[in-house]
Amino acid sequence: MKILVFGANGQLGSELVREGSARGLTREDVDVRDLKAVKKAIEQYHPDVVFNATAYNAVDKAESDKDEALLVNGIVPGKMAAICAAKNIPFVHYSTDYVFGDSHAKPISELETPDPLSVYGRSKLFGENAVLRAHPGALVIRTTGIYSPGGQNFVNTMQRLGKERGSLRVVSDQFVAPTSASTLAKISLRLAELGEDGIFHVVSQSGTSWYEFAQAIFELSELDVELQPVKATEWGAPARRPRYSVLDTARLRLLGLDESIGSWRAELERFFVESGE
Ligand SMILES: NC(=O)c1ccc[n+]([C@@H]2O[C@H](COP(=O)([O-])OP(=O)(O)OC[C@H]3O[C@@H](n4cnc5c(N)ncnc54)[C@H](OP(=O)(O)O)[C@@H]3O)[C@@H](O)[C@H]2O)c1
């Protein structure tokens, strides 16, 4: 399968390139806001499938940078999907658990209706809808709290701050299912190979709080850090996040693929072994 990945420098993009022996394009190669350049790249490579791993991921900054978040997460993915649809090329795009709001207390399946709380969440939801409207065969994968060895993510941030400070406050009343970029890439490639379409949830098979996740990171890194739980309202981030956004991977289960991703703890342990942390 000839695979073309936009956003090849990102956490997920670089894993897709590695796992799928794909052609990867970075922002320097093609800025996806330049749709002529996107189209030209697709015409030059003739891929069997296109993955869009680009995103405006600064959740808090998006609150004051709405236009750019909407452009990169919402409008551009729809146009990329339309370019692929016109050429009959499958298109894979990514979204987030933050399309859901505060009305959940158990794992959220693909059937539930999004109700985002933030600009970021709304821009990603706009992107989901735009992609699926433009390309009825597109695959949209929602995921959560991605981590990879070199990326900007919670695992690396905790390790850096833990070494610098020795004492940290971490939010304990928001529950998520953090997900390894490498496992996400492997499952994405399998879903594309199977020709799946529509929305899929791909996250670790259980949820945790950011506080408990930080505890595990310090334990596995053998860092002695004093952790204090803090409520999200005390933390006061500019963007509102859901209290509980653990996704249910119902569609993966139906395909028998849910066993290719472990619990958040098992996935984190594997990440530490594989990345030699
Ligand atoms: N990270 C998470 O925790 C998380 C959670 C839920 C969902 N997701 C979704 O999962 C997907 C992958 O996330 P990720 O963590 O791999 O993201 P990431 O590491 O932030 O990578 C995003 C990539 O997009 C590139 N990019 C941004 N704007 C671009 C543009 N205009 N033209 C070309 N490239 C552009 C960035 O390039 P530069 O490096 O040059 O900026 C970066 O390489 C995204 O759709 C994201 O919304 C992520």
UniProtKB/TrEMBL annotation:
Molecular function terms from GO: dTDP-4-dehydrorhamnose reductase activity
Key words of the record: NADP, Oxidoreductase
InterPro entries xrefs: dTDP_dehydrorham_reduct, NAD(P)-bd_dom_sf, RmlD-like-bd
Record-annotated RmlD-like substrate binding domain positions: 1-272
GO term, biological process aspect, one: dTDP-rhamnose biosynthetic process
Pathway field: Carbohydrate biosynthesis; dTDP-L-rhamnose biosynthesis
EC number: 1.1.1.133
A GO CC term assigned to this protein in UniProt: cytosol
Top-level taxon of origin: Bacteria
Leader sequence residues: none
Sequence similarity: Belongs to the dTDP-4-dehydrorhamnose reductase family.
Protein task: Catalyzes the reduction of dTDP-6-deoxy-L-lyxo-4-hexulose to yield dTDP-L-rhamnose.
Protein name: dTDP-4-dehydrorhamnose reductase
Species, as recorded: Microvenator marinus
